[in-house]
Amino acid sequence: MHSTECALDYDLRVTQDQVSAADAPEPAASEAHKVPRVGFTYYFGRAVLVPLTRLLYRPRIEGRRNIPRTGKVILASNHLSFIDSLVIPMFAPRPVYFLAKSSYFEGTGFRGWLSRHFFTAIGATPVQRGAGQAALDALDQQRRILHSGRAIALYPEGTRSLDGRLYKGRTGVAFLALEEGAKVVPVGLIGTNEAMPVGAKMPNRHPRVIVRYGEPIDLSHLGPASSGRARRQATDEIMAAIHALSGQELANAYNEAPAANPVERLKQVLPHERR
Q1: pLDDT per residue over 63-91, tens digit each?
Q2: Rounded to an integer, what distance in angstroms lies between the CA atom of residue 269 and that of residue 233?
Q3: Does the pLDDT at position 237 exceed 90?
Q4: How many whole angstroms separate alpha carbon 146 and alpha carbon 149?
Q5: Quick one: which of 143, 275, 168, 173 has its CA closest to 234?
Q6: Antiparallel, parallel or unpaired: β 210-213 and 183-190
Q7: What predicted TM-score, i.e. pTM, was given to this entire model?
Q8: Three-point CA angle 44, 48, 54, nearest 5°
């Protein structure tokens, strides 16, 4: 599991077509896109994992009271390590959902069973990765979870920071917050990249991880989700709050994946809104 990414960044490349589609009536949920509900596996997993993690790794958790116990909430965090996707929901005082690759839930045999129950226990819900319809389905799944009054976790940077710096935020988190009227709780993670560096099979016990949940941000005064300016202002406000919690050096750039072809390289160079 250590070599793959949880899919917390799916909504971060929202297109204008998706902004327009958000105004359409909510479609009926298919079996694959029903809003997940936590059950015995989730609570049993927390009862086992949280005390064990506290005993072995002694994480310092700050600001848990800042997370509203009810209502629509987005936990927006910096992203340093694979285990970010575990510690954010693990120490929150309410269930926090995030999207994870569907392959985590589709395995066979004992390993497949273990993977499926582990990710269910920490609040993951499966989604197909990719662009086009897969991205639309992922965005719709996140909207459904929020619309039901629950909490989700997302990374505004879009992907892990491999050099430890904090990159510019993409506007997908702001889009969802403005569209659904959700509060945003900034999260600052410190030390997760040292506790589990890229390529590591198990977390290191020596570096102490710090998880800081900031005060909730209400972005509704900035304007509607259809406004690119409102999305950008909301994103900058979220990233400023994350920076205040994490204390990272600012990269002053987007965390761009390497361009796959000349067209993608041209898109990265030309001015555009990094969604």
Answers
A1: 999 999 999 999 999 999 988 988 998 89
A2: 22
A3: yes
A4: 5
A5: 173
A6: antiparallel
A7: 0.81
A8: 140
